[in-house]
Amino acid sequence: MPYITVRGVEHYYEWVKQPSSEIVKPVMVFIHGWAGSARYWKSTANALVDEFDCLLYDLRGFGRSQGKPTIAQASESVVESHSTQTIQKLTYELEEYAEDLAVLLDELHLQRVYINAHSMGASVAALFFNRYPQRVEKGILTCSGIFEYDEKAFTSFYKFGSYVVKFRPKWLGKIPLVDRMFMARFLHRPIPKSERQAFLQDFLEADYDAALGTIFTSVSKAQAELMPQEFAKLQVPTLIVAGEYDQIIPADMGRQAAALNDTVEFVVIPDTAHFPMLEDGATYLQRVREFLQVPVRC
Question: Which residues contact 127 (CB under 8 A, 6 or more apart)?
Answer without folding.
Answer: 94, 95, 98, 230
